[in-house]
Amino acid sequence: MHRIEARQIYTTCSGRATSHYSETVVVQAYEPGGRTVEAVSLHGGYGYGVFTIPASYFHETATTKAGRRRITGYYMTGTLDD
Q: How far is Cα 27 from Cα 40, in angstroms, rounded to an integer?
């Protein structure tokens, strides 16, 4: 798993359950080694708000090390500027 930090922006992967609605979230809080990430939804099917997502759903890229497209979770698309 890559390093998850507050202010990182993630978008849903194309594929299964996490992509019924395109959604972008910003990490609000994460304890290194923790099991969950507190994120804020920017838009999408679930509306605005803060919610908890398993840390295992967060990926650095939209593809696996083998080059296959990820089908669940979120991949990093940027960071918020100060």
A: 6
